[in-house]
Design a protein that fits this description.
Elements (H helix, E strand, L loop, with lengths): L3 H52 L17 E4 L5 E4 L3 E5 L12 H6 L31 E2 L5 E9 L2 E13 L5 E9 L1 H53 L14 H50 L6 H25 L7 E4 H10 L8 E4 L7 E4 L1 H18 L4 E7 L5 E7 L25 H4 L4 H11 L3 E6 L5 E7 L4
Parallel strand pairs: 9-11
Antiparallel strand pairs: 1-2, 1-7, 3-5, 4-6, 5-6, 6-7, 8-10, 11-12, 12-14, 13-14
């Protein structure tokens, strides 16, 4: 299932279905338990009424049983024999015995109070061996067991109609000391009808509700993802047209989709700037390479035609310049590709002294100031850091009038600071960031031979940033420019 809308709708439907099924089963179980308890309470009331009569020694055939058509009653003795039942009871189950015919007990009836002392035999005890032959009425009354009755489920056939019942069993003791158990039932038809009605409503309503949930989720997800589809279409159009100036539509909401659109536009802006920078870089590099190549070709062609006119030093100078420019372009390409500097420990104090010592015969001598409190160690690429210091010295000597100073010191909050100062014209405040752009030369009147290609400061800043530091320019006390390279310490 590749559609987000379909997966969202299916997921929401499954979650709601599980929740509704769980809630529905809980409702059914609670409803059934409550209705069953109510039926058991009704059965207990009927059973205790009959048990109360037995405790008062009411004869079995004179027991009053209310609502006999709805509440079947069965009375058994200690041996499980049935001694009394409701008059319309035809069959029963769930009470311990399924008999519905009372066992004859004439002696019990004759000896009971309220039943008379004379019987059809004129008082002659002809059944001396019967269990009830010696049961004489006891003065007072019996008692009803006050403990919680036993509850069971069963069936009963009342006047030809079979139904399910909840039976309550209550024990009673007659004045004669006979223990009887009264089984009274209450119908479960109301519970079954209610549970069936609720179950039917759930079976009908659950699919309809799930359809509504699926439909609503589908529509809501479709509406929520509509801006995403707009973003996708616009990105596809940008990819096809290669027009990075276009932007995806940003919805007016402040949700995740709006943030996605803003981030996408920011990415497109950065990508457009990067592509434009690369295009300018290629164009400027081609332009810068054209001059030394054309000059070298001219000199070689003249030398081939007229060997006596060959300017060999000029050809060598053009070749050196071409080689330096190619090295700068290669280093910028490696930096743009994300090449990480090494982690060699470099002493900047020693590196500065080494770079200055190699600059013999320069137009202006360089003054070095490195305290003896060193070493001033940083971690990085020795070659790239040497290139930074060399580029800063070249830039200072190019613009200085009479003095160039380079100093090394420890930073206030850790790290090392290398400062290169000249006494030239300085850099205007509004141009102090522009000079770090590639192929930028503030003095357009200078010749390319004197001014360089405009890559030295750009390379220096890129290297400083990739070493975790920064390169800035400010005014010098002498009136010129002061470049500061700040790098974190090796620790």
């Amino acid at each position: 299932m590749r559609s987000v809308r379909a997966r969202a709708a299916l997921g929401a439907t499954v979650v709601v279905a599980l929740a509704l099924i769980g809630a529905g089963l809980s409702v059914l179980l609670v409803l059934r338990a409550n209705l069953t308890d109510q039926a058991g309470l009704q059965a207990e009331v009927v059973a205790r009424e009959v048990a109360g009569q037995l405790a008062l020694d009411v004869p079995y055939d004179r027991l009053e049983m209310r609502d006999e058509e709805d509440h079947p009653v069965q009375v058994t003795d200690e041996d499980g024999r049935v001694v009394a039942v409701s008059k319309d009871l035809r069959a029963i189950s769930g009470t311990g015995t399924d008999r519905v015919t009372p066992v004859p007990a004439p002696t019990r009836a004759a000896g009971s109070s309220g039943s008379g002392s004379d019987d059809d035999n004129g008082g002659d005890d002809s059944n001396d061996d019967d269990d009830y032959s010696h049961a004489t009425p006891a003065p007072g009354r019996g008692e009803v067991d006050s403990d919680e009755p036993d509850f069971t489920n069963g069936t009963a056939n009342m006047d030809g109609e079979r139904a399910d019942y909840r039976f309550a069993s209550v024990r009673a003791t007659t004045p004669a000391g006979v223990t009887l158990t009264v089984h009274a039932g209450a119908p479960l038809a109301a519970e079954q009808e209610a549970v069936g009605t609720v179950r039917g409503a759930m079976l009908i309503g659950l699919p309809l509700l799930l359809l509504v949930v699926a439909g609503v989720t589908w529509l809501v997800t479709r509406r929520a993802l509509r801006p995403v589809e707009g973003i996708r279409r616009e990105m596809a159009a940008i990819t096809a047209s290669e027009d990075l100036s276009r932007r995806v539509p940003e919805p007016g909401s402040r949700d995740e989709v709006a943030r996605l659109a803003r981030t996408t536009n920011e990415t497109l802006t950065a990508l457009e700037a990067s592509v434009d920078r690369q295009r300018r870089f290629v164009a400027d590099a081609s332009h810068e390479l054209r001059s030394p190549i054309a000059s070298l070709r001219t000199q070689l062609e003249v030398g081939a035609a007229h060997p006596e006119l060959l300017d060999l030093p000029g050809a060598v100078a053009d070749t050196v310049r071409l080689q330096a420019l190619a090295a700068d372009l290669l280093l910028l390409a490696r930096l743009d590709a994300g090449e990480r500097p090494g982690r060699t420990v470099v002493d900047l104090g020693a590196l500065v002294r080494e770079e200055v010592s190699q600059r013999t015969g320069d137009r202006i001598a360089v003054t070095v100031s490195v305290p003896d409190s060193g070493p001033f160690e940083v971690a990085g690429s020795r070659g790239q850091l040497a290139r930074v210091i060399g580029n800063l010295l070249d830039n200072a000597e190019r613009h200085a009038r009479s003095a160039v100073t380079v100093s090394v010191r420890a930073a206030e909050r850790g790290g090392v600071v290398v400062a290169v100062t000249d006494d030239g014209a300085g850099v205007p405040p509004d141009e102090r960031e522009r000079i770090f752009e590639r192929f930028v030369r503030l003095d357009d009147a200078r010749t390319r031979d004197d001014g360089g290609a405009g890559l030295g400061l750009a390379i220096a800043r890129d290297v400083a940033v990739r070493h975790g530091g920064r390169l800035t320019v400010d005014g010098a006390p002498e009136g010129g420019a002061r470049f500061e390279l700040r790098l974190p310490g090796a620790g």
